[in-house]
From TrEMBL:
Comp. bias (Acidic residues): 25-41
Entry-linked InterPro entries: DUF7573
Signal sequence coordinates: none
Region Disordered: start-end pairs: 1-87
Natural source organism: Halobellus limi
Organism lineage string: Archaea, Methanobacteriati, Methanobacteriota, Stenosarchaea group, Halobacteria
Segments of skewed composition (Basic and acidic residues): 42-56
Top-level lineage group: Archaea
Protein name: DUF7573 domain-containing protein
Domain DUF7573: residue ranges: 78-116
Short name of any one Pfam family annotated for the protein: DUF7573
Amino acid sequence: MARDRSLDEFAVDGASDAADRESTADGEDGSADEEADGPEEEASRGSAEETSRESTDEASQTTDTASDPIGDAEVEPATATYQWDPEGVECPGCGRTVDRLWLQGDERVCADCKEW
């Protein structure tokens, strides 16, 4: 069975990817062409930014007024599908000591006893 991995192992890569995406979305890719732009191009960029801000404002207003079709009372709580114990737990089905017990009905059993 493969080794369980911590989410912390992925957080470092995800944080650097997010920073890269943010810098390219802001247009800060460091090209010399953008620094030499004339006033006409700056004006067209300004109007495009204003248009995107207006559409963002409209979207946030429609989102705020939308009703919530799913109430909190309708959401079922999550159910754990297995139990993990680093010291090991005895399987009630076969008596073997295992570190993972899987949910089967109302009982937790080892992977060999579980009906997949």
